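Example record used in the benchmark description.
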Amino acid sequence: MNLPAGISQDHLLEELRPLCWGAADILRAYARGEQPPHGFSRALSVDDGGEGPVSAADLAVNQWLLDGLRSAFPDAGWTLLSEETAKEQLTAGEPLPAEWLWILDPLDGTKDFLQGTGEYAVHLALVKGQRPVLGVVLLPEADELWFGVVGDGSWCENRTGERSPVRFSDRSDDGELIMVASRSHRDDRLERLIAALPLAGSKAVGSVGCKVATILRGETDLYISLSGKSAPKDWDMAAPEAVLLAAGGAFTHADAQPLTYNTGDVRQAGCLIASHGKAHAALEKQAARAMATIDPGFQV
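Model output (C-alpha cells):
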C-alpha cells in the first residue's frame, strides 16, 4: 500500500491496534454506565447538567483517537477529520486541502449504542485523493477489529491478535441473496426497492460498520443505503467501504459510479449498494431500474 513518506504499513497497523482496543474499552464502559478508562470522566445524565452517555462517549473516543494518532505520528503528512470536528473544519463546497486524509467516526450507530443492541462501531479510514486506501472497523461488543488494506486484503483480529479471514457467502443467484438493512433509517421508498429485488430475505442491523461485517462474515450478501431527507456522511461509509473493497467486495452507486470522499459535500446521497461483489453488476441494474419507477428523477 502506498502511504505518506516515512510511514510503513506494519508500523501503522501496530499503532492502530492499541488505539482501537482502547476506544472499545472506553465505549463499553460508557455503554454500561461504568467508570471509563484512560482518565475520561463518567457520563453525567442530561438531568444532572451533562450531555448524556452518547455525547460523553463520542467526545471521549474522538479525543482518544485524535490524540493517539497525533502522538504516534507527529510528523505524518496527513490531515485528521472526524465527525466531531467536522463543523469546525469544513466549509460547504470546499474539500479539505489534503492529499492524505483520515476520516474518523468515533461512534457509528448512536441509537443502537443507546438502546443497548451492541450494534455500534468505530470507523477509521485513510483516504488518498477522494478514495479510501485503508479502513478499520471496530466492533467493541463483538471484540472484532476489521482491517482492510486496499490491494492487500482484509481480515479480522481479536484482542489477542489472532486473525480470521473474510468469509463471503457463495450465494450469488437471484432469489438467494440475503440483504442487511437499516433498523432506523427506513422509508416507503426503501421498502419498495427491497420488494423489487430478487432477495431470499433480509436482516436488520445497526451501524454501517456492523452491517458490512455481516457481509464479511458471510451472514448476508448486500446492503443498500437510500438517501431521503437525510443521507449518510463520509465518516459513515469510508471505513466500511475500504474493508469491503480490500476483501474483493464492491461498494458503488446504483449507476455503477464509485463513492468519492472529501469532495466539499460530506453527504453520501443516492442509492448506494455494498455487496460481496458476486452479483454486484446485476444488483446495480435491478436497483436503478426499480428506482426509476419508485422515485423518477432521483439521482442514484
